[in-house]
C-alpha cells in the first residue's frame, strides 16, 4: 500500500506499507521535497504511531494531541493515494537479517561493523540474493523506514568526510570501501525508483563528489565514481548538479592508481557533460 502526501506547508513525502508473512505491517517513509526538519519530526511521529505509541511529548488525553489529530483530519483531503490495494509481502528471514545487520553496524567494534557490512553487501548483490530481498535491503539504505539506523549509518559515513581525512587508518579505508561498494549495489537496485530523486540523495551525491576530491585510496575513489555514475544515469537533475560541482574536470584529475577499470567509469561520467565542455 502506498500513499503520496503533501502537507499545507508543501512538504511532500510517501508512505509505503508492507505486510510480512507473519501478518506484521512494516512502514517505510521517504521524503520527496520540502523542509528537512519538518519532515524528520513528522516521520518520527508517524513511525511512533505505527508502533502504537503517542507522538513525542504527547499523551492521548492532552488537548495539544487532540488538536494535532484534528489538524491531521483536516489535512486528509490533501493525501493523494497512488495505490490502496497492493501490499507486498516480506519474508521474515529478510527482516531478521536486516535487524541483525542494524545491530552489528551500530556497535562500536570494527569486527562487528565489518560483519554487518559484509552481510549487507551479500543482501544487496544481484548475483547472490533474490530480487525481493535485494530491493528491501537497498531501500533500507536509501529511505526512511523500520531500519532507520542503517540509512543513518550510511549517510553519516558518506557526508562526514572528516572521519577518513587522515588516510592512515587501514580499518577506516576498508570500512569506507565496503560502504561505497554497497552503495553502488543499492543505487543500482533502486535506479528506477522515483523516490530516488529527493533532497537526501542530492546531499549524498554532493558528499560523494567531496569524497572524490579528498580521498587518497584509489579503490575508494573508484567506488565513489561508480556510485556517482549510477546517479547521473538515473536523472538529469544529478547531471545538472554534477555540472555545477565541476564533476567532469574533477573525475579526470582523480588519481585511480593502476586501476585500469577506472578508465571506463571516467569516460562514462565525462560523457554526461559533453555539451557543457
Describe the structure.
This protein has helices spanning 36-50, 63-75, 92-105, 110-124, 131-142, 148-159, 170-189, 199-214, 218-234, 236-244, 247-253, 262-271, and strands at residues 2-6, 12-20, 25-33, 79-83, 88-90. Helix 4 packs parallel to helix 7 (170-189), helix 7 packs parallel to helix 9 (218-234) and helix 9 packs parallel to helix 12 (262-271). The chain folds into two domains: 2-88, no CATH class; 92-271, Alpha Horseshoe (Leucine-rich Repeat Variant). A hairpin with a 5-residue loop joins strand 1 (2-6) and strand 2. Strands 1, 2, 3, 4 and 5 form a five-stranded mixed sheet that branches. It is 58% helix and 11% strand. By secondary structure, the protein is α+β, with helices and mostly antiparallel strands.
Which residue ranges are poorly predicted, with pLDDT under 50 across at least 5 consecutive positions? 59-89
User: What fraction, in percent, of the residue positions are helical?
Assistant: 55-70%
The ordered string of helix (H) and strand (E) elements is: EEEHHEEHHHHHHHHHH
Largest sheet: 5 strands, mixed
By helix and strand content, what is the structural category? alpha+beta
Strand percentage lies at 5-15%
| Count of all domains | 2
CATH class of the largest domain: Mainly Alpha
What CATH architecture of the largest domain would you give?
A: Alpha Horseshoe
**3D shape:** globular
CATH topology of the largest domain: Leucine-rich Repeat Variant
> What's the total count of β strands?
5
* Average of per-residue pLDDT values: 80
Radius of gyration: 20 Å
